[in-house]
Design a protein that fits this description.
The complex is a heterodimer of chains A (465) and B (206).
Chain A (H helix, E strand, L loop, with lengths): L5 H7 L2 E6 L2 E5 L2 E4 L4 H9 L10 E4 L20 H13 L2 E3 L9 H7 L8 E4 L13 E4 L2 H10 L1 E5 L2 E8 L8 H12 L7 E6 L1 H4 L3 H9 L8 E3 L4 H7 L8 H11 L12 E6 L6 E3 L7 E3 L13 H14 L14 E4 L7 H11 L9 E4 L4 H10 L1 H8 L2 E2 L20 E4 L14 E4 L2 H10 L9
Parallel strand pairs in A: 3-4, 3-6, 4-5, 6-7, 9-10, 9-12, 10-11, 15-16, 15-18, 16-17, 18-19
Antiparallel strand pairs in A: 1-2, 2-8, 13-14
Helix pairs in contact in A: 2-3, 2-5, 6-8, 12-14, 12-15
Chain B lengths: L5 E9 L6 H4 L19 H4 L22 E4 L11 H9 L3 E4 L4 H8 L4 E4 L2 H13 L5 E5 L4 E3 L5 E3 L4 H9 L3 H6 L2 H14 L2 H4 L2
Parallel strand pairs in B: 1-2, 2-3, 3-4
Antiparallel strand pairs in B: 1-5, 5-6, 6-7
The chains are: A alpha/beta (465), B alpha/beta (206).
Bound molecules: iron/sulfur cluster.
């Protein structure tokens, strides 16, 4: 029998029609919508189409909601107009929507797995580039544009070209202080933000198998920062244990049938990938970005690199522009750089394990006087669980703000932003120019590293605390 | 959707790597500006300073590049966020074609939903073309012929490119994908019937 990869097995079971030239019309088993879903829903309604399968769609509110403590459904934010459009359109279409204050509300890539909606073996779309996150559950999940969302709503299918397959294997044990975020930032630093372009990436190796589901979701989340639309991890006992009993997961005899099927999904031993990358975990230290692309990343104990060392003029130019924007000097150690803001949140690092890691650093310490530090849980459920464990108290006692769930300062869409020229250490996924607000300077890091920066008042090596 | 067949126009060299869609259109402009009104905000973070003054050094603020219909870029153009507004902002600015060695994949797909042509050429070719344009101070025009899949540089050099047939046809005809897929409803019905039997838990929800 042909030896197949995880990706191929899932792809093949979703082909409705082969369109030739490597393209296929694929069935979409799950389409998730954030608060931007109102636009495509309205568009197809106005064009006279129905949502073909409302039961295969699910919506939440995340980008535009305020994260102000004590908010309600009526609270306004800089962009809350679109919340009402989403509410109105999903109701008209018969699509379930998790609203503010309800269990299920939260960042779309946090709630899919958490509610048991994202299942192994599914093909999942969402009008958001970080849809790759869901691949951590053993699904093919990718971001699409607004017009493509309309296509999915109307037809429950999507036209895609089959990508090549890459395997990134992380072998060995994680050093203390090294988190899943560090693993993926390290890989991006190594192969670049276009290194995965054209590929579906399967993360494998002993260090990936050892990760819990939340760690795998973090890993897959940054696939798009590698240029790959799809990142995935093979489903295993860890996946099944995580899913069992979640609100939307299958139950009873159906559960047993599903698990039996999911066990057949992992890549066959003899399957061949178009590209292979191997990472020795012994090399991976806590990471921090210094520039305005996620590939501008170094270990926290290293010095800021010098553009003069580059031969390629385009690359040299972008490094120089990055340093200029970031207000940094080549050759300086990055640790010790003073920090103004710390943001712990986003679909990369706002789950319970992330908050626990940050709280472990924050416990018994104080946020430096010069720093404003926020913790924004990824979902209503994460928030409630964290409060039940007392994590909110640890953060508040240390001087962090404990906020309501949403995307918040990852994208500054709701008005939560880092002021111009201010320096932030953020657990999110993009350090682009102006991403956290016009003129904001963002350093990406893990939750533990972000908490360390908050208490130290500067970029700090979490291993030294 | 507009068709794309052949076009001869001014081309603006924007030879930076990893230009992301956050920079092409800032998130604030996604709120209530519809397609058609985004042109003034394309590349806002680079075109203006924080007070809103134009940055005279930015290529799209210079003549004749304000009139360009083509952008030349380095690797991984329009990576990052899936916002289709990135295509719309370029479109509203007047851009109809981007030539780069590689593209952010979601942006690449979004182009074909909107009549925009993304052309992939080797970096060396694009750099040489950018040099020709700069030498002529922007006067040299670039011709992009989708029918024959060839780019002609200002000096008359012709560079062939490739594009998947399905994408090429879609642009040449200005085809709407939803309408096209709707002709396959019977196939989708049949697929779902079989799928429901094989993987009932997908449809069951809890
Ligand atoms: S948390 Fe950030 S990256 Fe994730 S979906 Fe929200 S805005 Fe996008």
């Amino acid at each position: 029998m042909a030896q197949e990869t995880l990706f191929d097995k899932i792809w093949n079971r979703h082909v409705v029609a082969d369109l030739g030239g490597g393209y296929a019309l694929l069935h979409v088993s799950r389409n998730l919508m954030h608060d931007g879903g109102g636009g495509p829903l309205r568009l197809i309604r106005e064009r006279g189409y129905k949502v073909r399968n409302p039961e295969l769609n699910l919506g939440t509110l995340d980008h535009a909601v305020t994260t102000e403590p004590g908010r309600t459904k009526d609270s306004k934010s800089a962009f809350s107009g679109r919340l009402d459009i989403m509410r109105e359109e999903s109701k008209k279409a018969g699509v379930t929507l998790y609203d503010v204050g309800e269990p299920g509300q939260g960042i779309v890539h946090v709630i899919g797995p958490e509610m048991g909606y994202t299942l192994p073996g599914t093909l999942l779309t969402c009008g958001d580039s970080h849809t790759c996150t869901h691949g951590g559950m053993g699904a093919i999940a990718f971001g699409i544009g607004a017009t493509e969302v309309g296509h999915v709503l109307a037809t429950q299918t999507i036209v895609q070209r089959k990508p090549l397959r890459m395997r990134a294997s992380f072998e060995g044990e994680r050093h203390p202080g090294v988190e899943p975020k560090d693993m993926i930032l390290y890989l991006i630093g190594r192969i670049g933000t276009a290194g995965g372009t054209g590929y579906a990436v399967e993360y494998a190796g002993s260090a990936v198998r050892d990760l819990d589901i939340e760690g795998r979701l973090t890993l897959c989340n940054l696939s798009i920062e590698l240029g790959a639309k799809v990142g995935m991890v093979a489903p295993d006992e860890t996946t099944f244990a995580y899913l069992e009993g979640r609100p939307l997961a299958p139950t009873g005899a159906m559960w047993d049938r599903a698990v039996a099927d999911w066990r057949t999904l992992p890549t066959d031993p003899g399957a061949v990938f178009d590209a292979e990358v191997e990472i020795d975990m012994a090399e991976v230290a806590p990471q921090i970005t210094w520039g305005t692309s996620p590939e501008n990343v170094i270990a926290v104990d290293q010095r800021i690199p010098d553009p003069a060392s580059l031969d390629d003029p385009d690359r040299r130019g972008s490094w120089e522009a990055s340093l200029d924007y970031m207000g940094l000097q080549a050759g300086q150690p990055i640790a010790g750089t003073p920090v103004d803001w710390v943001f712990i949140g986003s679909c990369t690092n706002s789950r319970l394990s992330d908050l626990r890691a940050a709280a472990a650093v924050a416990k018994g310490r104080k946020v430096a006087g010069s720093v404003t530090a926020w913790v924004v849980p990824g979902s209503e459920n994460v928030k409630r669980q964290a409060e039940a464990e007392g994590l909110d108290r640890i953060f508040k006692e240390a001087g962090f703000q404990w906020r309501e769930p949403g995307c918040s300062m990852c994208l500054a869409f709701n008005g939560d932003r880092v002021p111009p020229g201010k320096r932030s250490v953020s657990t999110s996924n993009r350090n682009f120019v102006g991403r956290q607000g016009p003129g904001a300077r963002t350093h990406l890091a893990s939750p533990a590293m972000a908490a360390a920066a908050a208490v130290a008042g500067c970029i700090a090596d979490v291993r030294d605390l | 959707m507009d068709k794309f067949t052949v076009m001869e126009a001014s081309a603006a060299p924007l030879m930076r790597q990893n230009v992301n869609t956050d920079v092409i259109i800032r998130v604030e402009r996604l709120r209530d500006l519809p397609r058609g009104k985004l042109g003034p905000y394309a590349f806002e973070s680079w075109r203006y300073d924080l007070e809103g003054n134009e940055n005279p050094d930015f290529v799209l603020n210079k003549q004749p590049y304000r009139e360009s219909k083509i952008v030349l870029a380095a690797d991984n153009f329009a990576c990052g966020s899936s916002r289709e507004h990135a295509v719309w902002a370029l479109w509203d600015f007047g851009i109809r074609c981007v030539i780069a060695p590689s593209f952010g994949q979601i942006f690449y797909n979004n182009c074909f939903q909107n009549g925009m042509l993304p052309v992939m050429l080797p970096l060396k070719e694009i750099e040489a073309m950018a040099a020709e344009i700069e030498e002529s101070q922007g006067a040299g025009r670039v011709k992009v012929d989708l029918e024959n899949m060839v780019v002609t540089t200002p000096s008359g050099r012709t560079i062939p490119f490739t594009l998947d047939a399905i994408r090429r046809d879609g642009l040449l005809k200005g085809r709407d994908q939803i309408e096209l897929t709707m002709t396959r409803v019977a196939e989708i019905d049949a697929f779902q019937k079989k799928d429901r039997e094989r993987f009932p838990w997908i449809y069951a929800r809890g």
